[in-house]
Structures are given as C-alpha cells and as structure tokens.
Amino acid sequence: SSAPAPSDGGVVEMDATTGTFDASAAGPQTSAPASREVSRTSTEVDADGPTEEEKAKMKTKAKAKDDDDGDDKAPPPPGNGGVTPWGVWTQQLSELQLQVPVPAGTTSKQLDVVIARRHLKVAVKGAAAPIVDGDLSKKVVVEECFWTLEEDAAGSKEVVISLQKDNKVEWWKSAIEGDPEIDTQRVQPENSKLSDLDGETRMTVEKMMFDQRQKAMGKPTADEMGKQDILEKFMKAHPEMDFSKAKFS
C-alpha cells in the first residue's frame, strides 16, 4: 500500500521491523489520544458500567439528596417547642408555656419559683438541687408572667409557667439557654387575626408582611421607600443642586 502523505510537508518514515509508517516526523500532531488510565470514553462506560469509585460517588449524591428531601418533609416541632430534661415547653408568637413535673404530694408552699427578665428558677424547697435554674433564651415581661401548680387524675403534679415574650413577633429556639434548639423555620404560627393583636404588635406584623412581599417582588421595603420619598422631596425643594453624580445608600 502507498504511504500516507504528510499534511504539512513533513517526512513520513517506515519502521523496518514492523512495516508500519510513522508520521511523527511530519510535524506536531493536532491532538493526542486520551490516556485510558486517566479517563474513559462514553462507549467504555456504557460497555463496562461505572467503576467502584463512580458507584460510590453516585451513592453519596443520592444519600445527600434523600437527606435534603427528608429535612424538607420533617414535621414541625410539637407545640412549636420541645422536650427537655426538666419538662416540656411550647410557644406561640407572643408567649411560652413551660410544664415542669414535680414530686407527687408537692404543695405550692413547698415551691420556689423565681421568674426574672432573663432567668428562671423552679425548685422544691429542701431538695438537693433546683429542677430548673438557667438563663432564658430571650427577655420576658415579668409583670405579665405567672405560674400555677396543677394535678391530673392520676395524682401527678407539674408547675405550669406562662411567660410573656418581650418581643412578641419572635420565635424562640429554646426556652432555656443550653437546651436542645428547634428549627424556627418549621414552626406553625397560630391562626390568629391581625385584629386580635394590640396596636403596636399589629403594626409591626403588618410591616413585616409588607416587607416580605416587597422583597419577594424585588421592590423596596417600607424603610427604603421612606428614604426614597424624603430624598425626592429634598431634590424638588433644591432644584439648583446637581444630584446626577451623587451616591445614595
């Protein structure tokens, strides 16, 4: 057979031993074959199937996706609160309720309950250690907090504590600092009407809802609109001033 012609004027040499032609002298080659050890062609993957390393990677990705899906489907925390070593706590947007079990036969006079702005203590007088003695996660309105001692049909007793939040539009991650935290993104707000809220809280909630809608649409928030209105009024009041190169934040 005839020797292949060099494409760029190079020299084609024949190997006398094998009888094959070597065009390496014909100049630089435009591409080099990929090493089989480095990468495999799609044909090889289809024929041989994925390697053990590729299988492991696919398994890891699938597990990560399942974990994400599981998080999305996770139920909200019961009562928007949680279970702790000292008892159970639940919350609504404006208040918390703590249920602290105490020994059967305990009376109110035997209890030492102290509610401070950022601290809570529940103890049975004469006991070796208090049942609860820790800092609250957030501030409360002490004057609006109270507690009662309740007993069920079986004779079990618990201290039920009602805490009024200082910030009535904020969810708590835990009642006592150091306790297990909940995901506040999964809480379920109570079905209350805006008309049921006091004037200040209602205005705050309405502003938050408005700002959320504005941000979702890529529009300015209430505060940003207020600044923009002030700026426009100032510019109209001072037409002699040049604002073309001014920068505003």
List segments where confidence is low: pLDDT < 50 over at least 5 consecutive residues.
23-27, 34-46
Strand order of the largest sheet: 3-4-5-10-9
Please report the distance between the alpha carbons of the first and last residues.
79 Å
Q: On the 0-100 scale, what is the average pLDDT?
A: 76
List the total number of helices: 4
Describe this structure as you would to a colleague.
- A hairpin with a 7-residue loop joins β7 and β8.
- The chain is flat.
- With 249 residues, the protein is an alpha+beta fold.
- It has helices at residues 42-48, 52-73, 199-216, 222-237, and strands at 13-14, 21-22, 82-84, 87-91, 95-102, 111-115, 119-124, 132-135, 146-151, 157-164.
Tags for this entry?
five-stranded antiparallel sheet; 249 residues; flat; 25% helix; 4 helices; alpha+beta; three-stranded antiparallel sheet
Q: What is the topological layout?
A:
Layout: E1 13-14, E2 21-22, H1 42-48, H2 52-73, E3 82-84, E4 87-91, E5 95-102, E6 111-115, E7 119-124, E8 132-135, E9 146-151, E10 157-164, H3 199-216, H4 222-237
Antiparallel strand pairs: 1-2, 3-4, 4-5, 5-10, 6-7, 7-8, 9-10
